[in-house]
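To assess whether the prediction recovers the assembly geometry, we first specified each molecular entity separately, as shown.
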Amino acid sequence: MTIVEGKKITKIYKHGKVEVKAIDDINFKIESGDFAVIAGPSGSGKTTILNIIGAMDSVTCGKIIINRQDISILNKDERADFRRDKIGFIFQNYNLIPVLTVYENIEFALNLCEKHSALEKKDKIDKLLNELGIFQLKDRRPSELSGGQQQRVAIARALIKDPILVLADEPTANLDTQTGKEVLDLMVKINLEKKTTFIFSSHDIMIIEKARKVIRIRDGKIEGDNYDSKDGF
Amino acid sequence: MIVKTAFRNVFRHRIRSALTLASLAFGIFFIIVGIGLNIGMERRIIKIMRETETGDYKLYKKGYFEEKYENIDDRLDFLIPKEALSILKKYDHSSRLVFSGVITDGRYDYPVRIIGGDREVEESFFKRSSYLTQGNLGIVISSNLASDLGLHVGDPFVLRGTTAKDSLNAIDLIVTGIIKTGGLEFDLNTVLIDLKLAQEFVETDHINDVVLKGEITPTDLIDLDELGVETISYLDELFDLIVITKLKIKVVIILSCIILLMSGVGIVNTMLMAMLERQKEIGILMANGLKPKEIMKLFLLEGSILGGIGSGIGFILGGSLVYYYELVGIPIPSLARELSTTIPLSDRIYAYFDPQLNLLFLLFGIVIAAIASFYPAYKATKLNPIDVIRE
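The predicted structure of the complete assembly is given in tokenized form:
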């Protein structure tokens, strides 16, 4: 089943009188349960596509359909609701809320989208923390964690609301090779076990090698769109 | 969770928050103490004046009250008709004869105000004996007068004055008591003598001043009016003093508003810095689905928490101080007492602790802080999450 479909998407940014075409009339599809990567060099437009899929940004023209819903017609508040309920984000810089503990960072995301009893919430968060191997860190603040641990917490925050899509923007870029591999393996494991759809934006060869689908992009245009690619940039 | 986050954000930069809290706390402290002292002063003035001078109502011959400052030496021209006394019989009142005179010590003449009243009635009305610093009721002179003239209980003095028939009169008297009420005008130059003695001295069997306690019926008010007697409530009687204290309260409010405005600017600055520092975090919250109005709520909440804590500290410190001053009072330096001859305050100022009013100030501080947070909150809602997350 197709979970993400981009139809003739164009994105133009205006900087004063100058117009920059970040995405130029592209079409793509991503299937449910995919472990997909949008790969390309810096400035190619991969993060822009990820932002459009994540309803963080709007398209200039074209349609973006997520789970049979056209999100290109949503207004700002509707896009916020959509993100809240259906999308999990993982960022390069982890971006956890520094004043909250690991547990609270995850709880915050859960509170935003669903109403659970305190006990249900605790069970759900504890279970996920155990799955990701960070249960023992739950009372620590982000500043007390290593980069790899913070990224695991960010993954937990993205997954806690059972999103239909997890979008990860260069998730291994700030990690050393070993830690990056561990974090990536963890996401592969979740993808296989939970059938969660992951879409990455990255030029990390390690991610591209693990991906079942690679959308290669350059200068806002898709250069290649293939499954089970072992090619890298 | 938003409340928890807001609360922790407030204390992310402790020194910065502490300074902001301090300015707000000082503002609320200042307003509570300033207004507490002024209201206390106003209440004390009214209390002292009611207890020593005015009762609930003063009755004069028509025309006197309006011209009382101009006619201070002509009180004997404003004698109350005797028919009025029959109306006043049913009321708790003290009939008095008040006139001006001088006491001489042989070298200088001291202008005095003589109040002739029934000793027992005056005692029951004004508890004169409780204010006596020396001696007994009878021929009582006020403390400042005694001090200036060097008079003590048992000392003789000469009282001179003009009678109702405009002839001069003088009488030898012996001090039986010295009184200090706290009413500065009273303490300055008052001589208390018996009504009959006063009437004999000024050669009249009338009175010119009635102090009344309780309420007068509308019918009697009309009857008194027809007899040419005006009835002045203590609030009208003390109007000038109350205006002065109200003016002082207004000055305190204006000063407090300036201080709170400065605190508000401090809060705007603190929140704006917080917003700039946390742009990425705000972007993350937006990415997780927080709407602009919820971001605004978070910032307003942080501002309100700052306001609540700052105002709370000011409320507790200011309230405690006002409550303490309500119980024990603040001694007034003698110089200030001399300068403030129009304000009857005794030798201490007592503050007034009004919990409801102080809670209102507390609320005011929170509202100021919330309003001050609005601009930074608005700026936060306008951030583009894509830009700030990638920065």
